[in-house]
Fold CHAT domain-containing protein.
Amino acid sequence: MKSSFLLTRPDHDLTTEYLYFWSEAVLKSSREKNILTIDLASKEANKRNFLSAVKKYRPSFVYFNGHGSPNTVTGFNNEPLITFADNEKILKDRVAYALSCQSAKRLGKSCVADGARTYLGYDEDFIFVFDEEKEKDPLNDRVAENFIEPSNTLVLSILAGKTTKEAYQNSQEEFNQKIVRFSLSEATAEERELLPYLLWDKEHQVCLGNQEAKCEFITKEEYQKGQKIKALVLLALLVMLAIGAALVFLFK
């Protein structure tokens, strides 16, 4: 069944600000594909909005950006959005990817056990190194790019209709290419210093659950058409009920 794409991207500290800006490549892709996209950005990335959006739009793919732990993934100001032994069932029948620390260690497994199709994430800390001179201009930080690009590759692959296994493999291959490049003799000292962290992120990125899951996405126009049809059906039912009530009154 076709459905929407939902992402959360708070921006309350340096880490989340980087993820906020680097997820714009994902948003650009979803817009170009005309996918119905629910973007919970900045302060909108709170639990109330998240639960409401999942209920209203029923996304097939949920992409979290934010801090995490073995038991939770958080939104703006570190408010828990999804928590172990609390509301992980909200991801039932969905594919989820969390660009956050450690959430796949316990929460991700619990989500899959409670019906999530696939949970992609990290079972230890996700580490990225950044250029301090680019703190105010994250999209031009070529150091951080090496860590966030493989993550974006995963999301872009799912948006392109790849299976979760293929998306995971594409991300792993992106890590591999960078690791090989920075291992060559012509690599700079600064590039070689990134190797342990790239290897760490690659090793601790996991794909839990259904490896063959795919997401089919609905367009904005299809969604709007569906809402109009639902409204017309509801109106027809109300008219029929009114007619029925009038007939009962007439034949009393």
The mean pLDDT is 93. The chain has two domains: 5-218, 222-252.
